[in-house]
Predict the structure of HAD-IA family hydrolase.
Amino acid sequence: MRFEKGRQLTARGFLFDMDGTLVDSGPVVERVWGKWAETQGLDIAGLMPVAHGRRAIETIAMFGKNILDLEAEARKLEEAERLDVDGLSEIAGARALIAALPADRWAVVTSADESLARVRLGACGFPIPRVFITAESVEQGKPNPRCYQLGAEGLGFDPKDCFVFEDADAGLAAGRAAGAQVIAVASTQSSEGLDRKGELWVPDLAGLRVTLDGDWIHLTHD
């Protein structure tokens, strides 16, 4: 169901995924992972829906063939992604929404490693958050909820008092399992598909408005 004008949601903290939520990294991801898929004899169209939102090492473990050192393979892919910034862009409205929030009320929770996340956020003009949960922060990535639990803890809030903004199924599942209020961003999935899954969704972050009310933040849509 689309988050429509006139509806108001309330939380204390905002937890943002990065790729597909704050940053449109689709062109880079498809180039780098497309090349890797070719080396593995895989169809990129079948790989990406599963890989999106997951840590590189977990995707490699799921799809890789005869790879003896998963960590080394993940490092190679992450380095290739760090060196490729062509086509990176902000998801519409993302910087404005971040700018409207107090610095101690939002966090980034990403499956990317920290160095890659810093490159992508910097390339798109985002500040580095005070609370920054990356691939290195957890032993198990999304859909395991620990990453979002850590994000909420870092802000000093219970996950149930936080919004999670996500685009990928793995991340949406992680946010729900953490007990947060989950809002899907329809950047890598169709709105029809999100409706079928019963997700509350927005097309992007443009038009979202926040109003501070003591310890709480009200979220509305123009």
Notes: The domain at 8-25+88-221 is CATH 3.40.50.1000 (Rossmann fold). The two ends are 16 Å apart (CA to CA). The longest strand covers residues 208-213.
